[in-house]
Design goal:
This protein is an alpha+beta fold. It has 2 domains: 189 residues, 2-Layer Sandwich (Endonuclease, Chain A); 192 residues, Endonuclease Chain A (Endonuclease, Chain A, 2-Layer Sandwich). The chain has 13 helices and 19 strands. The protein has a 9-stranded mixed β-sheet, sandwiched between helices. Helix 1 packs across helix 5, helix 2 packs parallel to helix 3 and helix 3 runs parallel beside helix 4. The radius of gyration is 23 Å and the shape is globular. The chain starts with a helix and ends in a 5-residue tail after the last helix. The relative contact order is 0.16.
Length: 485
């Protein structure tokens, strides 16, 4: 009897600790630099350029990829002389099936960085990435090993300093698993991302189920006496090499905000960045300027909701998005439709993920909600994917002569926007007639209307899904954080 009473007290104490840990990990103070927004920075109109990758079916029925983003990134690296800083979420050559990837992006990027080291002996290179590339300590990352061996400062982000998005599970993990660490020795479970990779430990899978990440995709490098930056939705990942993505290339002082933000990330991970060539003169005289701000984590949601809620009748909202599920964004869009704002959205149908088939959650359930609650005033089309993903993360809001763009790594989901992941976006404010705004508008109209005999998108009914079960599943997953979106 005494044994049972002691066991009962122990279980009660354990449950209390479990609950308190969960509350703490959801509400704990954020690491320095998380949830950051920069001061507005003026840049010359000619120093901002919109880039995109698109995979589509042409008039001959062939699948074609038009790609700009990594061509620009490789060109940036080729011209660097003093400093390169890169923070990329997926940086690996993992392949789930036997099909060859469209491009060996991770290998190309690794080779470019090593060539820069060979060409410029004094160049400094900082590479920040997510522990998913080492399967959370359960495997070697050959690309990262090569860069580290070649003299680059490689930093694996300590994501456990971030808040927990799914505390019901993560509290269990922190109490019973985290302290065990991990090992790169072959385990007994099939590699989760590579059909040819070594087996990994159970600890890798248990770590993965925390569902948190350094999800950023940003690079900056010098070009002689000028610094250039690219913020994108694209990963240097072989399995993602055919994905459709977007990016903004920005020259000038914006790089200083990227460096500051990434220095916080390095410090959070027990590391630091190398010293930058601070003497670079990036200021320019320009007759026409636009304004950019670096925005991270929850600041992205605040920016978007502020912009959407400020729209009035006749304004225009264009969105291209891989995942859309954040309840605050959804409510804001529905309110805007009530004000007769023109809203058009292109979504990924959420049917493909690196060799796995998906069930359409969350986008199909969200699309149904948006069309129903707006009485079809919110118009939606699906990007017609062929095994790859429509991985774009772009919102443009036009209010007469002024337009705003929010673009970068963040999907419009709870995890991406509520300080659980690390995310980096750029907010751009520009004249609606500027070249970059017109380029973004032309990009959207091209895929919306399938221009030039190319097939990018299909109508809403093609993937329409009114399943009540899926709606309930999406809402539970979004609320609990136990999901991959």
């Amino acid at each position: 009897m005494r044994y049972l009473l002691n066991m009962k007290k122990f279980l009660i104490l354990l449950f209390v600790i479990y609950c308190l840990l969960g509350v703490y990990q959801v509400t704990k103070k954020l690491p320095r630099g998380v949830n950051y927004t920069s001061e507005p920075i003026e840049v010359a109109e000619e120093d901002v350029k919109f880039l995109y990758d698109l995979t589509f079916e042409n008039s001959d029925g062939k699948i074609v990829s038009e790609q700009m983003i990594f061509k620009s990134i490789f060109n940036l690296i080729d011209n660097a002389q003093k400093y390169i800083l890169m923070d990329m979420f997926l940086f690996n050559s993992f392949s789930k099936d036997k099909e060859e990837p469209y491009k060996e992006l991770s290998g190309e990027l690794t080779a470019k960085l090593l060539e820069a080291r060979d060409r410029e002996k004094n160049i400094k290179i900082d590479v920040i990435t997510d522990p998913i590339n080492t399967i959370y300590g359960g495997d070697r990352a050959k690309e990262l090993d090569m860069l580290s061996g070649g003299g680059a400062n490689v930093i694996i982000t300590n994501i456990q300093n971030l808040r927990d998005s799914n505390p019901i599970y993560s509290s269990f993990w922190r109490i019973f698993v985290a302290w065990l660490g991990n090992s790169t020795r072959a385990g007994f479970i099939k590699h989760p991302f590579d059909g040819y990779g070594q087996r990994v430990s159970l600890r890798s899978y248990l770590s993965m189920l925390n569902f948190k990440a350094n999800h950023r995709k940003v690079i900056m490098a010098d070009a002689g006496e000028e610094m250039k930056s690219i913020i994108t939705s694209a990963n240097p990942h072989d399995g993602s090499s055919a994905h459709s993505n977007v990016a903004l290339s920005i020259n000038g002082d914006f790089w200083k905000e990227i460096y500051k933000s990434e220095l916080f990330t390095a410090n959070m991970s027990g590391n630091t960045l190398q010293e930058t060539p601070l003497g670079l003169k990036t200021e320019k005289e320009a007759t026409s300027t636009m304004v950019v701000r670096l925005i991270n984590e929850n600041q992205i949601e605040k920016s978007l909701i502020g912009l959407i809620d400020s729209t009035t009748k006749g304004d225009k909202i264009l969105i291209t998005m891989f995942y859309l599920s954040d309840r605050n964004i959804i409510k804001s869009l529905i309110r805007a439709s009530d004000r007769e704002v023109d809203i058009r959205i292109v979504l990924d149908p959420n049917k493909d993920a690196f060799g796995y088939k998906k069930n359409g959650i969350p986008n199909r359930s969200v699309a149904y909600e948006l069309t129903k609650k707006s009485n079809k005033k919110i118009q939606i089309r699906w990007y017609d994917t062929h095994g790859e993903q429509f991985h774009s993360k772009l919102t443009m809001i036009t209010k007469g002569k002024e337009s705003f763009v929010v673009l970068g790594s963040a999907n419009l989901t709870r995890r991406n926007l509520e300080n659980y992941n690390l995310e980096t976006d750029v907010e751009l404010q520009a004249n609606s007639n500027s070249v970059v705004i017109q380029d973004i508008n032309n990009y959207f109209e091209k895929i919306w209307y399938n221009k030039d005999g190319k097939y990018y998108t299909v109508s809403y009914p093609i993937y329409k899904d009114e399943s009540v079960f899926k709606i309930i599943m999406y809402r539970l997953q979004e609320f609990s954080g136990f999901c991959n979106f």
